[in-house]
Amino acid sequence: MTEARRSTGVRTPPEAVPTQRARPLPGPPVDQPLVIETRGLTKRYGTRAAVDDVDLHVAQGDRYGFLGPNGSGKTTMVRMLLGLVFATRGEIRVLGHEVPKEVHRVLPRIGAMVEGPAAYGHLSGRANLDLLDASGPGPRTGRRRRVGEAMERVGLGGVDRRPVRTYSLGMRQRLGLAGALLSRPDLLVLDEPTNGLDPHGIREIRELLIELNHEGTTVFLSSHLLAEIEALCTTVGVVDRGALVLEKPLDDVRRSTGRVVLSTPDADRAAAALGSALVDRRPDGGLVVVPANGSGASGLAQHLVGAGVRIDSLEPETISLEDVVVRITGPGSDRA
Ligand SMILES: Nc1ncnc2c1ncn2[C@@H]1O[C@H](COP(=O)(O)OP(=O)(O)OP(=O)(O)O)[C@@H](O)[C@H]1O
């Protein structure tokens, strides 16, 4: 069952999205207008549902991570949002417009990168972006500036005249992102944007996306990399075999358990002093403790020190995104 979204995470609201909707799709309330919403969205290939009855809610200002194992339907979802694949059933609304019916009104406001960046290898990065810009809705005037700015933005300003065939994978990925930025989009839709990048490249892309988000761009990205979503996103949607099984602000997912984890060189002495307040011992040696009612971590520390226990650290126990994903998707969810 879907753990539905109740509120949005940290927000820097960008300029307003059209809120007049001919027919708003029903869904859980959120604090900001929705820039992507789907209702009962389903895509079948033969008898197999690649996307299965999905109600998605991406709010303005989100950095929304669409997380799922390989083959769980992420790319199919992204392609439907962009009008590249027709749904078998269900409704899609992006930036207040129906997709695919009104996709021509939506696409000029979206920057997208799906299934890796495509570029002509014999042309320079700048020439590739010139071509892309020429095929877009933007005016001819200002193209040079737009392309230059986009190249600078992704850190390719110094190599803009080199043929793309000489670019590393990371540079190609950044060129793809530069293409997505040309129209100064309200919404970025990125399918596995850090695929194939090394840790340095992943960090660069992440920092750039956070920067763009702070300037007002809503970011929707798909990934099978839990750590990537955890480091970048404000909201997470978890998809398992085509179905959305969780959609929540990341801060709500990683909530505190109310217990604390004690790290000490005097574990046995601590265990004796804690009695029934000690509820678990972790593989890393940490003692999981339930502080006595109202005493909190400071009361616990006082009690332990009084019992002659040395304390290395005493920290609140939190549930990680990984804990939650493992629990709700179960083992083998990424198997065919
Ligand atoms: N054109 C197609 N025809 C038939 N089946 C398809 C087609 N496109 C996707 N599928 C199937 O739909 C399911 C979801 O695929 P999709 O590519 O959307 O998943 P994904 O989560 O993006 O996977 P990955 O992370 O590997 O890219 C898979 O079982 C895939 O084989």
UniProtKB/TrEMBL annotation:
Keywords: ATP-binding, Nucleotide-binding, Transport
Stretches assigned to the ABC transporter domain: 36-266
Any Pfam family: ABC_tran
Region feature (Disordered): 1-33
Gene Ontology molecular-function annotations: ATP binding
InterPro entries: AAA+_ATPase, ABC_transporter-like_ATP-bd, ABC_transporter-like_CS, P-loop_NTPase
SUPFAM superfamilies from the UniProt entry: P-loop containing nucleoside triphosphate hydrolases
PANTHER family assigned: ABC TRANSPORTER, ATP-BINDING PROTEIN (PTHR43335)
Family that this chain belongs to: Belongs to the ABC transporter superfamily.
Protein name, per record: ABC transporter ATP-binding protein
